[in-house]
Amino acid sequence: MAYDEKLADRVRHALGPDDEIEERKMFGGIAFLRHGRMFVGITGDDLMVRVGPERYDESLRKPNVRPMDFTGRPMKGYVYVAPAGRRTAASLRAWVTLGARFVATLPAGKPRRRRTPRPERGR
Fold first, then answer.
1. Dihedral angle at the C-alpha atoms of 40, 44, 45, 51, nearest 10 degrees?
2. 30, 34, 56, 108: least surrounded by Cβ within 10 Å?
């Protein structure tokens, strides 16, 4: 499944320059992580947002939001936001900020081993 590149650019713009943000291709889309924790991602034309368990029910009551059911089962604390729910720059920024603020409350993720070794310098 491809992901919406224009939406990815809009997310990057909403985040601004931030050395703590990592982009990783995952689940046929792209995910944005801070300290190893995903807080927002894109699959197809859906925006995935990690809102956390405390904001989950509140987020689901908003228009154009549904449970994230990537595996066929809803994942508590994660939602999908349809295009109409993040049409404006302000609405997209609000969702991105909500996800980023939630992962800021979590301990850093474990560093992942690289699949391919980095080339040595000077060679």
1. -20
2. 108
Find, among 5, 97, 95, the residue nearest to 42 by Cα. Answer: 5
DSSP state letters, 67-113: E--TTSS--TTEEEE-GGGG-SHHHHHHHHHHHHHHHHTSPPPPPPP
Question: Rounded to whole angstroms, how far apart are CA atoms 89 and 66?
Answer: 20
Q: Which residues contact 42 (CB under 8 A, 6 or more apart)?
A: 3, 4, 7, 8, 11, 29, 30, 48
Measured CA to CA, the distance from residue 1 to residue 76 in angstroms comes to: 23
68: how many CB neighbours lie within 10 A of its CB? 23
pLDDT, tens digit, 9 for 90 and up, residues 48-99: 999 999 999 999 999 999 999 877 888 889 999 999 999 999 999 999 999 9
The reported pTM is: 0.83
Identify the residue whose tokens are 């046929």.
28
DSSP label at residue 54: H
